[in-house]
Amino acid sequence: MSAAVPTVSLRPEVDMPQIGLGTWMMDDGTAARLIPEAAAAGYRLVDTAARYGNEAGVGQGIRSSGIPREQFFVTSKLTGRDHGHDKALAGYRTSLETTGLDYLDLFMIHWPMPRIGLYVETWQALCALRGEGRVRAVGVSNFLPAHLDRLAQESGVWPDVDQIQLNPRIPHREWREYAQQRGVTVQSWSPLGKGGSLLQEPVVTSLAAAHGKSPAQVVLRWHIQLGLVPIPKSSHPDRLAENIDIFDFRLSGEEVTAMTTLAGGEEPMDPETFEQDLAGSWQR
Ligand SMILES: NC(=O)c1ccc[n+]([C@@H]2O[C@H](COP(=O)([O-])OP(=O)(O)OC[C@H]3O[C@@H](n4cnc5c(N)ncnc54)[C@H](OP(=O)(O)O)[C@@H]3O)[C@@H](O)[C@H]2O)c1
Description:
By secondary structure, the protein is an alpha/beta fold.
């Protein structure tokens, strides 16, 4: 196992590991097989979603890992078709039934879908779940600053987490700083740029060589040093172990800045227009 993973505090007595395992594109069987491997490598945060169709495998992997449930931090997300107060409560119950877990550590609204216009009401249902102690923390995903503001104005509650598409090519500096300054912890989805050409960028490969680390480790370290919580996905045990082995080196301030110069190299998804499970063919 690699060096100890630091945690970030979401709320009193709710700490979340600063790196987690993404599971998008894993089927039930893969998730069930890989989670014990990931747990042995040191992962305790696992990210799933109703939309991924693998909540059952995630629950199974946690149970078969040999590690007590309460040592994990399990996250799932409400899908687009379940916006609205009652549907959101039912969606949470379904996630519990499918995972076979008694509670989730963090439950999030997957996309705001502003044209549907139900995200505030949906958010209020999640806040009620947290108030009743049925979930430890509540959050959102892909919520722009304007969406976060509206939640705070209309419910008086800032989310514990906003999970957004973020990597050195899409650094979203203003967005992440806006959230962080209001106590909203930012998780990075697709933190490795989906394992594509980001990992071959000369600035990344030269820093990797200088630190004796892999390109993926240097990119993940960049997230950590910006106070972000990356959730890289891998289906390979060796890469799972590599991705969490990032707590024994530091990038200098200049090196962090050098990686941020990659900004603009990738087109991010647009939370204003993406309508999950309703109209588009996008499926995340
Ligand atoms: N909230 C949202 O709307 C949203 C959207 C998308 C994703 N997510 C979450 O974020 C997680 C991560 O995002 P992601 O899966 O899109 O992308 P990612 O974690 O940036 O990249 C995953 C890809 O990188 C490869 N990879 C992993 N480790 C590597 C390494 N050390 N060296 C080289 N390649 C490596 C993987 O291949 P192998 O599997 O073959 O190793 C996989 O193809 C998802 O799994 C999901 O949990 C959330």
